[in-house]
User: Fold this.
Amino acid sequence: MEKKEIHGSSDKWAESLQSVFDLALENQGPERTAQLLNKLADRLRASQDGLPRGFNTPYVNTIPPEQQPPFPGDWQMERRIKSYIRWNAMAMVVKANSTTNVGGHISTYASAATLYEVGFNHFFRGHTENFPGDMVYFQGHAAPGIYARAFLEGRLDEKHLQNFRQELADGGGLSSYPHPYLMPEFWQFPTVSMGLGPLLSIYQARFNRYLQARGLAKWTEEPKVWCFVGDGESDEPETLGSLTLASRENLDNLVWVVNCNLQRLDGPVRGNGKIIQELEAAFLGAGWNVIKVIWGSDWDDLLARDKSGLLLKRMEEAVDGDYQKYSVEPGSYTRRHFFGKYPELLGLVNHLTDDQIRKLLRGGHDTRKVHAAYQAAMEHKGRPTVILAKTVKGYGLGEAGEGRNISHQQKKMNEKELREFRARFNIPISDDVIAETPFYRPSADSPETKYLRERRETLGGFLPARRVNPESPGLDVPKRDFFTEFFKGSSTEVSTTMAFVRLISVLLRHKGLSKHIVPIIPDEARTFGLDALFKDIGIYSSKGQLYDPVDSSSLLYYNEKKDGQILEEGITEAGSMASFIAAGTSYATHGVPMAPFYIYYSMFGPQRVGDLFWLAGDIRAKGFLLGATSGRTTLNGEGLQHQDGHSLLHVGTVPTLLAYDPAFAYEIAVIVADGLRRMYTEGEDIFYYLTLYNENYPMPPMPAGVEDGILKGLYKFKPGPEGKKLKAHIFGSGSIINSALKAQEILAERYGVSADVWSATSYKMLRTDALGCKRWNMLHPTAAPKKSYVETLLAKEQGVFVAVSDYMRLVPDQIAPWVPGGLMTLGTDGFGRSDTRARLRRFFEVDAESTVIATLYALVEKGQVDRQLVTEAIKDLGVNPEKVFPQIV
Assistant:
């Protein structure tokens, strides 16, 4: 087609296109008009190679100056307060590293000070009687600034600041980052493991809506969830991985503020591109409301006077690596390299000195621009909002680290740099003490302190603050006799997974507890048999069910409800753990204790999202984690990536996580009953991990007097026959206790060995207790020594000890030092395989026959039987002595 020359100003063409658009909208409707516009855009892209897709707006502020609301505060006063906080945040880190090497970070808060202070002075609402307070996820590396503000507020004293990152100092200190476990009355949310804060904030905002939908929320006004994110942090998969959930759920109670200082630890985030434009496209594509705060007010006049469009063109041409360079060079460099690329642009800044050009602010450092963005975010309805604020890393540090690749590691400043910092921010500290980097706090009756405290009083109180009411009655949890049916046993063969499903069904009928239970499932309900709950309590959906499900005629149809109780998260273990954490901390965030039960494929628990397990301990979450389809040989057929033989080692690393490997229904009932009591009546900040297996076998009745042993980790389940000369003890766990029981029969019938079978429910509990006793004895060498539970329990037992489980040998090995005469262990070390249970157990040497051989060999080592007997047993039991070692095959 012949191209025709067209004439006319861009404004006239814009007016013409607007007229066409209005006409189409009137006659065709919005959907048809959108389709036509998309077709037109596609044709334009096809004719112009390289034209970007329409997920970016121009590289300017989203809110034009004429739409900015008036700034409601005292700008000069807030600048002074912010300057004092900057100084104290810097001084805290510099002081800590003048006498120690504990580290710390200055540059992150330096870049984000305005972003935080606008929030503190005008938006972050504190806790009141009928309002839980806004929930703010502070960027972890900005912690010094949050401490410095608390110091000005009078919440922290100078001793606290002096002991930054020195928590074991006399009088205590401040944790390096936000850690509720270490500062339980201050921090609410751990955020410094990159990417987890953003993920948690999305699920927290959704959980707030869940509580509201189920009638459990106590507030009269909905809290906002604010999350401060680093631009480099966006590379973590967890950061952006759940964006569409927030838009799909219409979470307009969620605001993210991305501090785009263009730098990560080693260098630029996107030196050859633009991180703001990249993130804008991602968020727009995910359905978020995006507000860009790129340029400070000084740029408004330049943009208004630029009639040629060259300034915008130059802004979009320059990459982040260029902008980082401009922040460290003098104004003459920016004049020459940024404005000087086009001679016409130089005229725009002829009236500015080089120093004025150097001081042209980025948007994230402009209080008025940031306030306008926050106000727009507060007023926006229907979608979550992200604010992309451009800043300079290390802003204010000057040559000590402003905008430089070393900024993140900057921890010290010399006297010259301190003087420059003082002068730049007008800090009233005299020359004779400046080298000591003293903290500065204006007097209690100063205008600054009065203003700061008045703003927080108006907004409801101080933040961050974590509140747990010690007078709260907790939950009405069932007593142990409520679980009687599980203590009776059953001749019907069931798995421990199905026993748990029955147990939670019973709990959901308990009047005091039922509404506080939060079942969480990552798209495996039918696998675990939990689909029976769909009909009874429903799956939570903010939209209800807008369709007729394909299985609606069946009893167990997929039942979505606006007040549904199940959180069916889909295929996301990270998201499911985020929901577990939101529910498990509801007692602190909302004053409403909830009891989450998160059941999942055990292999995809701590192995996949172990960082979130650790964080759950830090945040003092409560609840139950159920690792279903446990065991490397019990989950047969699924193979290497699915068969879990090591999650008990993973969870064993979390100090407040109590790990159990139950074999029988009554053990599960005893553990859950005691967990409910400890967490929700006694108020202990602990949580539980239970393995669940999918192998069916009869569930025996509970022997008398074993409850204490179940909870402590070991009890005698079935004594061996009397009248045998040889004695042994076999510890069994989970489904593999059946190997121990079968081995008990073989040993008695064929080899004259009486073997007692013990149920080992928790090697971690046994080890923790034993370590505590050993430590006490070491530190009290002249006192009567303490004996651990396992030592006391086994002290009078004769014979050898063997442990067998569907987990790695390292699990039972944990108690070997305290077992009389040592412990022979069998386990499933190595990669899993797809096959039958019988073959898998022979392969990993945890079947009954292998257990017999291990027991006889333990007797050989004690000199109680001849070695030839073991050789004969290997042959008689059909075990190949030359088979491969499963750990390395």
The first helix runs from residue 10 to 47.
